[in-house]
Design a protein that fits this description.
The chain has 9 helices and 15 strands. It has 449 residues and is α+β, with helices and mostly antiparallel strands.
Amino acid sequence: ILGFLMVAYMGRQLSWAAETSRQQSRQLEKLEHLGRDIINAPPDQSTLANILTEHVPAMFPSARVAVWMTRDGFLLKHTGDWRVEIEPVWSWIYTKRAPQSFLANNPLPWSSIASRHDPIVLTPILSVSEGKPIGCVYIELRSLAQPWDKRALIGLYPALQSLADSIASALYQAEVYADTLEYQSALQELEFAGRIQASFLPNELPVLDGWEIAVSFLPARETAGDFFDFIQTQDGKVGLLIADVADKGLGAALYMALSRTLIRTYALEYEASPDIVFFSANERILQDARANLFITAFYGILDPDSGLLTYCNAGHSSPLLLSQKDGGTIHALTPTGMPIGIDEDTTWTQAEIAIEPGDLLILYTDGIPDAQNSEGVFFKERRLIEILQKHHGAHAQEVQAAILEAVSQFTAGSAQFDDITLLVLKRDPAPQTPPEVERPISSEGEELY
């Protein structure tokens, strides 16, 4: 009798081991097919629910299986007429990070009513990016000839965990795809905004007899807060405007468009008065805009014939005038008032300076002196002055190229942090009058040549 009992016990164990092995083989096969179909599915995972319906029910000896997500609800509920109360289950499994199981006679922690139930295995689905539960897989197992025990339930954990990881990975891929589409859309909108903003800037430089002009505009992003302009007046003078919104990105670009339009409008109305131009633009900006931004700006009216520059500097980086007759002396056109957009009662003092033949004037935004190298050292105005003195007597385009090259070498390996705008104005040197040469006279009083 003992021998028969031993044979029966061993046969039962072998039978259960064979059934377990068969189940694991089926689970691996289904997991492989599931993973392949997820990879080949559309990147937005719009077919994920259909894929789960095809593969998951046959993966486990289950009577009922549910895949539930906090955001999308049920991705799978087999069978369809099953009315599962998933909210109490989710409230309990939300605090777990690994598969859980309950035999038929175990009480369920999410239910206050003790009742008999089928064996249950379940696991949270953890977010790939944050590691937090975003859903759960809930399975009620079918009764088999060999009763389920705790060891058998634990044997389902690897497949259950792999299933949850596959679902989480598919959902993460869909999120990445959606974020990519959103990023591409935003990038296209920014590029379009950048093209619109660029259309506000002059596409041609004014041609002034006896003057050279060179301009560079290098935004740090798709849109910029810097802007410049040339404004022709009716009496033949030209307005030189350079400005910088104290911010970056799309918001600064919108503020730039408003500021540029207002300054240009008032510059055409008050042709000879930069101080009134700034006062009027400042008043209107504070009335119409509530963005809590301000603008540094320099606006000067140049008389090309005399070289007289009448200007106001609203807290902007001081333009530098390299004097030819003084042997390369640098004159800074320092601020004559605070930035625009701070105080409605602000006024600006008007100043004048004469640009003599051979002199060179540079207007720039703080993207040049504030440029940093990989060690966090600033380029500073000192290096800018050294470049001007080194290129004393050079053409405007040569000075422009030298400044930009020096900034590029200084910041090599570091991303451009701020917008860069550079305007170089050079007055041609006065023509040299050749000295009178005494012509030799022959003995007859005639010129020899």
